[in-house]
Amino acid sequence: MKKPILYLSVLTLTISCGVKNKLTPQDLSGIWTEHWVPDIIDPDKSVNYVDTLKLYTKNNQLNITCINYDMYVYSDIQLKGNQLTFTKENLVDPNERFFVYYTLTVNKKRNECSGGIINSVNEENKVSLKKMQ
After folding, report:
1. DSSP string for 45-86
2. What residues contact residue 112 under an 8 Å CB cut-off, 6+ apart?
3. How far is CA 74 from CA 6, 23, 81, 102, 129, in A?
4. How far apart are CA 59 and CA 71, in angstroms?
């Protein structure tokens, strides 16, 4: 009789710890800065500015807006485990659609997401988001 009780206790503890560590959209809510790794092959193509993003939930769905630049639209935002993926469309030129596809790994302890992007002209780069608040 002691073994089933011990087993159930360990199972309950394991499940409750797992639930507490699960990443939710609310965990990512806040103000984040976006940082691009400089392009060492062609430095003229480097992104040398920092966008400030607001991540927030609405109806339990994660949303993103850019605070310092209103010409971006974010879509296809998904959080699966510790993987955050989304698409950014640059609306500067209405005659030319330009997309950036993000795949980031969330490090909750460090308040950081890091990974890579590929854009609609097949250029790749490394990028990270750092949580400010």
Report:
1. G-----EEEEEEEETTEEEEEESS-TTEEEEEEEEETTEEEE
2. 106, 128, 129, 130, 131
3. 48, 21, 20, 10, 15
4. 24
Strand, coil or helix: what is 9? helix
What is the average pLDDT score of the chain? 83
Does 103 or 41 have the greater pLDDT score? 103
Reduced to 3 states (helix: H, G, I; strand: E, B; else coil), residue 132 is coil
Phi/psi for 112 (5° steps) reads: -145, 145
| Per-residue pLDDT, 1 | 55
Q: Model's pTM, two decimal places?
A: 0.78
The predicted-structure confidence for 54-89, as pLDDT tens digits, reads as follows 999 999 899 999 999 889 999 999 999 999 999 999
Whether the CB-CB separation of 83 and 103 falls below 8 Å is answered with: yes
